[in-house]
Each structure stands twice: as structure tokens, then as C-alpha cells.
Amino acid sequence: MPKVTQEYMEARRKQILEAARRCFLRDGFHSTSMQDLFAEADLSAGAVYRHFASKDEMITAIVEENIREVLAMVHSVAEHRPSSSVGAMMADVLELVKAKTLEQGIAGLAVLAWSESLRNPSLAAQFNDLLTQMRLDFAEVVREHQKSGNLPREVPAEAIAATFVCILPGYILQLAMGDFHGVEGVPEALRALWPDTAAS
């Protein structure tokens, strides 16, 4: 038998996750069966199970993938634009979420995942781990701004980071409901509230 390459495996995994996104957004998490996913991905049961043992694993993978993109962007801003304000960084995150929602419907998927995590302790634990990592990464950026005096030092960096992370669900929920107009000026407002140090 020919050797299966890593590129082939990654392409199959991507194919399955894209099919899962479409199914979950169209029919909801509970109404989507594994048979639906096999048909949508145009793959056999064995090919799908080779990558994912359950729907839970698929939705967790989708959430992880999107949060990793956000975290990578936060790290990039911290590394390459150290003078960029926390407000500008948060605005960039929201704009990325909006773009991904238009492309892949991630806001709707996020709401589905939150809803399912209320009934699924395993998914809730994985989701909490991802949010904890996001808060930790934001806190590192906040500490740098506290050192330079751009944010108050008397407030714990973790509390400031948690506050910024709390903004995300409200923004995501409105996007999921299709209220793009209602959140239209939010990124610009964040940049105005916490302007770049280079511009001040």
C-alpha cells in the first residue's frame, strides 16, 4: 500500500472539519448525526473515525482552531507591534472574528459550542482550558502595557485580561444573531478608548 503522507492526512482532517461546520450550522449539533457528517464530507465512516471519534471531538477541534488563530494574532501584535495599545489589539481580534464569521460562520459555531458545553462536562472542561489560555496570553500583553504606564498597575493583569475576554461573547452573540449593524463601530471604539502610544 502507498504510504499516506502528512499532507494527505491534514487535507482529510480539514475536509471533515469543513463538512462538520456546514452540518452544525445548518442542522444544529444534536440534529446532526455521524451519518450526516459522513455524507457531507463524502467519506467513509472509517475515514472519518480515523481522525475524530465523535461529534464532540469535531466541535472541540473547530473551537480550538479558531481560538489558536486569535492567540497567534495576539502574540504577533505583542511581538511585532509592542507599542500597539490593548484597545487596538482587542479591535484586531474582533475584526478577525467578524471576518471568520463571514467566511466560516464561527460566531454561530461558538454559540452552539457554548450551549452544548452546559450539558457536556467534557466539552465544558476543554472549552474552559482554551479560555484560560486566552486570558493568560492577554495578561502577558497587559503586563507589558502596565510596565510602560499605559494601563493601571494597581489592577491585576489577570483581571484586566479577563475583562477584555468578557467583551468577546457579547460581540460573538450579536454576530451569530446576524446583528452586524449593531456592532459596526465597536473595533473603532476600542481603538479610541485605548489609543496607540505612538499616536498619543
Describe this entry's structure for a reader:
This protein is mostly helical. The protein has two domains: 1-53, Homeodomain-like (Arc Repressor Mutant, subunit A); 55-193, Tetracycline Repressor, domain 2 (Orthogonal Bundle), CATH 1.10.357.10. 74% of the residues lie in helices and 0% in strands. The chain contains nine helices and no strands. It has helices at 6-27, 34-41, 45-49, 55-80, 86-104, 106-117, 121-147, 157-176, 186-193. It is elongated and about 55 Å long. The model has no long low-confidence stretch (mean pLDDT 86).
What is the element layout, followed by pairings?
Layout: H1 6-27, H2 34-41, H3 45-49, H4 55-80, H5 86-104, H6 106-117, H7 121-147, H8 157-176, H9 186-193
Distance between the termini: 64 Å
What percent strand? under 5%
Largest sheet geometry: none
Could you tell me the CATH topology label of the largest domain: Tetracycline Repressor, domain 2
Number of strands: 0
What's the number of helices?
9
Number of separate domains:
2
Order of helices and strands: HHHHHHHHH
- Name of the level-1 CATH class of the largest domain: Mainly Alpha
Mean pLDDT: 86
Q: Which architecture of the largest domain per CATH?
A: Orthogonal Bundle
Helix content: over 70%
SSE class: mainly alpha
- Ranges where pLDDT stays below 50 over 5 or more residues in a row are none
CATH superfamily of the largest domain: Tetracycline Repressor, domain 2
Overall, the morphology is elongated
Radius of gyration: 19 Å
